[in-house]
Amino acid sequence: MLPAAADFLPELQFQTSRSSGPGGQNVNKVESRVELRFRLFDSQLLTDEQKQTLLQKLASKLTTEGELLVVAQEDRSQLRNKETALRKFHELLSKALYKPKARRATKPSKGAVRQRLESKKKHGDKKANRGRVDF
């Protein structure tokens, strides 16, 4: 079970910088780009098993120091970019920690098998009746 995004706040570091996104002159003046950094190994909220899973699945997104880096610069507002970064972070962790339900093998019922074979027989008969008609 993954804790809520708000629970991670004490463990997250935010850094702002000037964005290359939309904003006209605003981009040259305001630091609206938000970088979210999460130190995976120092987390108190995740179990060791979860940390190992994240290390394997998010290896390409981790820095050499083991920090997960999420960047948001889509919006002109620093606050909205911060919210976007938090949402991306939570989605990333949720997807990486998701365990699909194990599939149990089942057999088709006898009625379903009989119905399929009857359908195939009808279809075969229909095709067999096509062809030349002699008068």
Short structural description:
This protein is an alpha+beta fold. Helix content is 39%, strand content 14%. The protein has helices at 26-29, 48-57, 78-97, 110-128; strands spanning 12-17, 33-39, 67-72.
What do you see in this structure?
With 135 residues, the protein is of the alpha+beta class. It has a domain at 5-97: 2-Layer Sandwich (Double Stranded RNA Binding Domain), CATH 3.30.160.20. It is built from four helices and three strands, in the order βαβαβαα. The longest helix has 20 residues, at 78-97. The protein is elongated. The model has no long low-confidence stretch (mean pLDDT 85).
Report the portion of residues in β strands: 5-15%
Work out the number of β strands: 3
Helix/sheet category: alpha+beta
The helix-strand sequence is EHEHEHH
The CATH top-level class label of the domain at 5-97:
Alpha Beta
Ranges where pLDDT stays below 50 over 5 or more residues in a row are none
Shape: elongated
Mean pLDDT: 85
Return the CATH architecture of the domain at 5-97: 2-Layer Sandwich
Distance separating the two termini? 76 Å
Tally the helices: what do you get? 4
Report on the biggest sheet.
3 strands, antiparallel
**Quaternary assembly:** single chain
CATH fold annotation of the domain at 5-97: Double Stranded RNA Binding Domain
Largest sheet, order of strands side by side? Answer: 1-2-3
Report Rg.
28 Å
Helix content: 25-40%
